[in-house]
Amino acid sequence: MWDVLLLDCNAATMLGDAAFGAIRDAAIGIRDGRIAYIGPRSGSGPAQVKRSLGGAWVTPGLIDCHTHLVFAGNRASEWDARRRGMSYEEIARAGGGILSTVRATRAASEDELVAQAQPRLAALRAQGVTTVEIKSGYGLDTETELRLLRAAGRLAHDMRVSRTFLGAHALPPECALDRAGYVERVCDEMIPAVARERLADAVDVFCETIAFTPAETARIFAAARARGLGVKVHAEQLSNSGAAALAAECGALSADHLEHLDEAGISALAKAGSVAVMLPAAFYFLRESRKPPVAALRAAGVAMAVATDCNPGTSPCTSPLLVLNMACTLFDLTPEEALAGMTRNAARALGLALETGTLEVGKSADLAIWNVGEPAELAYWLGADLLRDRYFRGRSDNEDQP
Ligand code: DI6
Ligand code: FE
Q1: What pLDDT is recorded for position 402?
Q2: Alpha carbon of 396 to ligand 1 centroid (Å)
Q3: Which of 24, 50, 303, 373 is deepest in the core (most CB within 10 A)?
Q4: What are the helix (H) ranges across 10-109?
């Protein structure tokens, strides 16, 4: 006997040979928060509650596997300066950019950080997100970095939150003349504290000419590995530094951005099984022109994920559905690749592939239910309100409904 049986629906399981792993006229049985049955209606059994979905499509709950959702303030004025001709690098070198958000974030309490992040998280939820990754990186000192991760942990209501420590996001102003000293603090003070208090699952580094070098990145990855934390990297966004290959060799869960990724980087990701995370909203917002090598990644069999990169500087985006469209329109993914990038492959990028990301018996019943005629419409409409319901661990957002 199942707790809930969903009927009159089509399921995009994101598994198997059919496009989107589709099962038409499907039934989904849920027991103890997990998927207990997914298949044709004819194979389903008794349940305490039956819900008819009126022909809607059910997909895995969306997974936004790369965000910087917790921060204070915003950078609308900086965006305006860029619009008038200043570059992101120029703003960063002039002490703006990430460091202006760091100033606002250091001045904010944990409660304020939670309160400011909540509407952004609500926007993701309203578009079917059931798992979100949240990075620190706007504190750049031990106390504020830990505060950001604690605030992120408090957002885990009706939503799975995977936390990533990104202390190596920028050099803090007080360490401007002591790069080595800051990297040492990240490795010897911050990562041990994060691991001790179990405040993050992984460690990320912004490896870029305006941030950290490959040698510094390697050192930080070694410290993360030594504490049993996963690694991921912001790589080849504005230039090619070989960071994706470096991360792959450390067994990275993912390498993210990748506009300037080269052949060596592609083979390294393929060999390691690391996920390539596409962030088209940042590409759009920075008016970049160089696209990530999607065709070569596809040919090499590298799994691709897609995420919002929600952050105040380069991607103030809280719309995963818009990002699905951008992945197709700007980066040439197919609608099916884009959706796999926000479900199955995004779960892999977070090390959560056994728990969520596909509609499969045994996985958490994390579902998004959509008012669309075909799943490709999820990547097609711009700004439409498509979500009918969402289940997290078997619980509907409209739990009162019959
Ligand atoms: N890459 C990005 O796109 C963001 N961080 C990063 O490492 C930008 C963050 C910001 O500008 O606030
Ligand atoms: Fe980012």
Answers
A1: 45
A2: 34
A3: 303
A4: 76-83, 88-93, 98-106
